[in-house]
Design goal:
By secondary structure, the protein is α+β, with helices and mostly antiparallel strands. 27% of the residues lie in helices and 25% in strands. A 7-stranded mixed sheet has the order 2-1-7-6-5-4-3. A hairpin with a 2-residue loop joins β5 and β6. The longest helix is centred in the N-terminal third of the chain and has 9 residues.
């Protein structure tokens, strides 16, 4: 991966040590033992562009080196508060740390690309079983499998 990063300008979302320590042990073992998995994980944290948090807006999509999108969002508690910027829902703890070839952004968790559609994600959450039944009864389950969107599940 370092040969890919020799020239050009990049932005990197760098998980803290605590973020790596919080990974499930099975995922840690996979990443440590499988170079392809490690490269895929690392490529998901690098953007082939200069990104600074001042350029952020809700649902900004940045293209990672693995051709997956990293979604950026901005949250304000009130008019006087500093904005909280997230990458894939994970808080940037330190941002816009300048280097000669780009920016580092410290993130409070290892970014993991989303997998599966909305319906199958709901299936993995036991506390959403009633909601899933309603989706099935209402004939909506197929719809959320094939279209992009946001589901607000009670």
């Amino acid at each position: 991966l370092d040969s890919d990063l020799i020239s050009g300008y990049y932005s990197m979302f760098v998980p803290t040590n605590a973020a790596f320590a919080a990974l499930p042990s099975q995922l840690q073992a996979l990443v440590q033992s499988n170079q392809t998995a490690m490269r895929g994980l690392l490529e998901y944290h690098v953007v082939d562009a200069l990104y600074r948090t001042q350029d952020s807006f809700n649902n900004l999509q940045l293209s990672a080196l693995n051709n997956r999108s990293i979604r950026i969002n901005v949250y304000y508690r009130d008019q006087q508060s500093r904005a909280v910027v997230t990458a894939e829902g994970r808080r940037l703890e330190g941002a816009d740390i300048a280097a000669t070839n780009g920016y580092l952004h410290l993130v409070d968790a290892v970014l993991l690309p989303p997998s599966g559609d909305l319906y199958h994600l709901i299936l993995t959450k036991p506390d959403l079983s009633v909601f899933r039944q309603l989706l099935d009864l209402g004939g909506v389950s197929k719809e959320i499998q094939v279209h992009e969107g946001t589901v607000m599940a009670p």
